Structures are given as C-alpha cells and as structure tokens.
Amino acid sequence: MHTKTLYKSVIGIAIGCSIAFSSLAEIVVVVHPSNDAALDKKSVQRIFLGKSNKFSGGKEAIPINQVPSSSTRNSFDSDTLGRSSSQVSAYWSKLVFTGKGIPPKEVDNDAAVISVIADNQNAIGYVDSAAVTGAVKAIPLN
Length: 142
Hints:
The chain is α/β, with parallel strands linked by helices and about 140 residues long. The protein has one domain (about 25-140): Periplasmic binding protein-like II (D-Maltodextrin-Binding Protein, domain 2, 3-Layer(aba) Sandwich). It is about 45% helix and about 15% strand. The protein has helices at about 1-25, 40-50, 70-80, 85-95, 110-120; strands spanning about 25-30, 60-65, 105, 125-130, 135-140.
C-alpha cells in the first residue's frame, strides 16, 4: 500500500514539475548587440516568413531558424508566427517550389543561434530566454 502512495506522489510531482517548467519557458528574439532596429511581432513575422529582408533601419536582416525538432522552434512558430511548424514548413515548400523564396538557415539549438548572431550584425534569431548571454541582445515580443 505504501508503494502505491509513493508511486502516486512521484507521478504527481513529475507532472507538476513538467507543467511548471513549460510555463517558465519564454521565447525571445535575439539580435547582435549593435543592432538598434525597432522590432515588434509583425516585423519579426515578416522577416521569418520571407516577406521582408530588412530591419527597420534599412540594414539586411538574416533570419536564423532552429531545426524543426526543436521545442523552441515549435513555440516560436505557434506563438510568434501564428502557425504550426508543419504549416510553416508547407509555406516555405511552396515558396521554394515556385522560386519565390529561400527559407531561413537552420541551426541545432539556442547556443548555435547565439553563436551565429554574435558573429553577424545582420542576423536575427530566437532562443529560450534562459539561454540569453551577453553576446546577443534579447527582444521580448510578448
């Protein structure tokens, strides 16, 4: 009988921790620290959907995506772009097929996004807010 109680307690704690952890994850857009462009959700959507290739100040904008299997990418696609990851993939497939666009470069994780942006003043990406370092400037959109 104690085993059942212990089992239920462990399951309850695990579920509680996973819910708490997922609610703490906040996705932020990151740019090079020297980038002073004004960014809002609409301008980020335009950049990541290939509708704009410039920041508000006129400088080139190079979007950096995370791989489709990334939970950060899934959150960004749904919360910022307003589409599921499969919808975003289908959108880019259509643009590529018709010769009207090239999807953003994809990297493996938050650390790779930060590395690319730290080395390129024109890059823009997104990471979990907990991953932000001094090498990039975070811009919360929510």
